[in-house]
Specification:
This protein has about 475 residues and is of the alpha/beta class. The chain is built from twelve helices and 30 strands.
Length: about 475
């Protein structure tokens, strides 16, 4: 089937899984991190599903994400030259059913025949052309009113994945096959039997369908989700180009996956086998498999050294931090400036248990990185005491912090790279490298970068309270409102 109108990618980028901790955290989850390669998983997904291709044209994507990540999304898309399209803001995490329905309703209101390709933004699919050809093979089934999902031929009896049981074994042409049922993560013995039968594929969690057919499936199989999501979309507000779903309406939507809510009940599902390489990077063991290991199974990343090590992953996430392994086998070791993970590869799935334990103890590292990303750039804490904090702040060219003041702290800024334009109360001046300026407690102030290169400064805060919620915003080019991030 030839498709002249193209496909609308819907990238799900709101999750904050813990299985790749300490690299992936709630404040900066794995889809926005450079886990494999020189770009983030989100950027790789956006490039994979963009542009006019020989097999199929892709429109600018709909990205569904959380409020804290909205500016990361726009920045990362801008870095790779992809039109951001529509960015839908989830007021709270609701698993996958509600955000997918919101995207379908948004598309169906414009064109009920719009074809949407729903994909997680944190998977690794290195062979993009093969993947796009696989998507194109599903269009004929979509034209017949079917919902298409994609399955991965298993190369091992993996217990960590869900499976798709096919009505018949897939053919050599990898055309769509009717789906018999979904199978949740199986036991070891059952996984062996399923893989041996040749009728099961791993569930990739990727869907292709007309927007109207997705909406119809929800209306028939999960009507309890439709009313709150439709109300959240009807009452949505546009904020700097972002489409913010109404929080009160969205809160009433059940938190459930689209598999449970719709797909496991739908009678009109087809599966297209994907013959290329795929990984959901669901654990550090999966990352080890994706990295270039040597003949002994050793994979190194960053400032890592190994002596007599095998079948292990040694990874440093900071250029100034060296990790050294001696005599290791079957080990995952990931070093970050504020946290280090060491585990055997066969216990990689248990990282989430460690995160929950740290969270229960109130350990900051369980959810937050030292580096905090903002629409104007980022900052990281270099030193923290009871009445002082030292930060490194990086401001993008042309970007500006909000006009603000603080109740509990004063600040001293030293510019170390570039030039800052600083306003303190009624005075404005340029501050260049090796120059500094003092911001008294309570002063209304703003910092911006008027140059064409990133501006870097060291900030020293002193006061009785140093929390990020001690910010009163008066003006903000990013319309963030009050609060730590707004």
């Amino acid at each position: 089937m030839e498709n002249t109108s193209g496909v609308m990618p819907v990238l799900l980028a709101g999750g904050f899984g813990t299985r790749l901790w300490p690299l992936s955290r709630k404040s900066h989850p794995k889809q926005f991190a450079k886990v494999i390669g020189g770009s983030s998983l989100f950027q790789q997904a956006a490039l994979r599903l963009s542009g006019d291709r020989a097999t199929l044209a892709y429109h600018a994507p709909i990205v569904v994400t959380g409020s804290d990540f909205r500016f990361v999304v726009t920045e990362q898309l801008s870095e790779i030259g992809v039109d951001p399209g529509t960015i839908v803001i989830e007021p709270e995490a609701k698993n996958t059913a509600a955000p997918i329905l919101a995207a379908a309703l948004h598309l169906a209101a414009k064109d009920a025949d719009s074809i949407m390709l729903v994909a997680p933004a944190d998977h690794v699919i290195p062979d993009a052309e093969t993947f796009r050809a696989t998507v194109a093979r599903g269009l004929e089934a979509v034209a017949a009113g079917r919902i298409v999902t994609f399955g991965i031929p298993p190369d091992r009896p993996e217990r960590g994945f869900g499976y798709l049981e096919l009505a018949e074994p897939p053919g050599a042409d990898l055309r769509p096959v009717a789906l018999s049922r979904f199978v949740e993560k199986p036991s070891g013995e059952l996984a062996i039997e399923m893989v041996s039968s040749g009728r099961y594929l791993w569930n990739a969690g990727i869907f292709l369908a007309r927007a109207a057919d997705i909406v119809s499936a929800f209306e028939t199989l999960a009507p309890e989700i439709v009313a709150p999501v439709r109300a959240a979309l009807d009452r949505a507000t546009v904020d700097l180009g972002f489409l913010r779903l109404d929080p009160a309406s969205f809160a009433a939507a059940p938190s459930i996956s689209i598999d449970y809510a719709v797909m496991e009940k739908a009678p009109n599902l087809s599966v297209v086998p994907f013959g290329g390489h795929w990984s959901d990077l669901g654990s550090w063991d999966a990352v080890w498999k994706e990295q270039q290991a040597d003949a002994s199974g050793l994979a190194l990343s960053g400032a890592a050294e190994a002596i007599d090590c095998s079948n292990s992953l040694l990874r440093s996430e900071s250029a100034g931090q060296v990790i050294v392994g001696i005599g290791l086998d079957n080990i995952i070791a990931v070093a970050m400036p504020d946290a280090v993970l060491v585990a055997t590869k066969d216990r990689a799935q248990d990282v989430k248990i460690a995160v929950e334990r740290l969270k229960a103890k109130g350990v900051r590292q369980s959810e937050n990185l030292l580096r905090d990303y903002r629409p104007w750039g980022w900052y990281e804490t270099l030193a923290l005491g009871t009445r002082f904090q030292v930060k490194r702040i990086v401001v993008h060219p042309g970007a500006a912090l909000s006009l603000q003041s603080h109740h509990h702290r004063s600040e001293h800024w030293i510019v170390v790279e570039g030039t800052a334009r600083v306003r303190v109360d009624d005075t404005s001046r340029l501050v260049s490298e090796n120059q500094s300026i003092y911001v008294p407690l309570g002063a209304v102030h703003r910092m911006e970068n008027p140059g064409k290169v990133p501006m870097v400064l060291i900030e020293v805060q002193t006061g009785s309270y140093l929390g990020e919620d001690d910010i009163i915003r008066y003006e903000d080019v990013y319309s963030r409102g009050q609060g730590a991030k707004g």
